[in-house]
Amino acid sequence: MGRSRAALVALAATLGCSDPVPQGEALRAAMVGAWCNSQDGGKTCWAYDFIDADGKALACNVEARGGLSYVATAQHTVEAAESCFVILGSAVPELEVGHRLCIQSFMIDAQIHRFQYKSQDGEVVTLHRRASPPPRCHAP
Predict the structure, then answer these.
(1) Looking at residue 118, what is its pLDDT?
(2) Angstrom distance (rounded) from CA 122 to CA 134
(3) 86 has a pLDDT exceeding 90
(4) What residues are paired with 85 via a beta bridge?
(5) pLDDT at 140 over 60
(6) Rounded CA gap, 23 and 31, in Å?
(7) Rounded-to-integer distance, Cα 23 and Cα 12, Å
(8) In the predicted model, what is the mean pLDDT of residues 74-101?
(9) Does residue 62 carry a pLDDT above 70?
(10) Which residues contact 49 (CB under 8 A, 6 or more apart)?
(11) pLDDT band at 94 (very low <50, low <70, confident <90, very high)
(12) Which residue in 20, 23, 16, 22 sits closest to 7, CA to CA?
């Protein structure tokens, strides 16, 4: 087992994840769907991420957080447990077209996805799966 894979398994264990994260195509397929950004365990959602089977992604907020409102589209790719999103369109100045944002997944199942942004402070993010998107989320 490589050093990065061993580190990933160790981190998953500390986060309470019993199974290692799927890799490559299995992870890409597991990420397809609607995901909720939540502060209360998924009861309410302040933003959504959508990934389709063709790798197109849409992210938007449905509740302004601190006055910030955003919507962005991206192309999603996966290699091992790393997922990257290349911005295709954005209404957010910090997410210019062509910007690449990558995450390291630690756990994903039918209900939640835990990951860490590779370029930020190391906080682990948890998203909650949703059956369908909200009606207010539109591509830029």
Answers:
(1) 79
(2) 29
(3) yes
(4) 76, 101
(5) no
(6) 11
(7) 14
(8) 91
(9) yes
(10) 34, 35, 37, 57, 58, 59, 127
(11) confident
(12) 20
Q: What are phi and psi of 87, to 5 degrees?
A: -65, 125
Average pLDDT of the segment spanning 60-72: 72
pLDDT, residue 138, reads 59
Round to whole Å and give the CA distance between 60 and 72. Answer: 6
The b-or-e profile of 117-134 (16+ CB within 10 A means b, else e) is eeeeeeeeebbbbbeebe
User: CB neighbours (10 Å) of residue 39?
Assistant: 10
Whole-number Å distance between alpha carbons of 18 and 68: 36
* Chain-centroid distance, C-alpha 20: 17
- Looking at the whole model, is its pTM more than 0.90? no
> Which residue from 50, 54, 56, 27 is spatially nearest to 115, judged by alpha carbons?
27
Name the nearest CA neighbour of 15 among 131, 132, 109: 109
Q: What pLDDT score was predicted for residue 57?
A: 94
Domains of the chain with bracketed CATH: 21-130 (2.40.128.280)
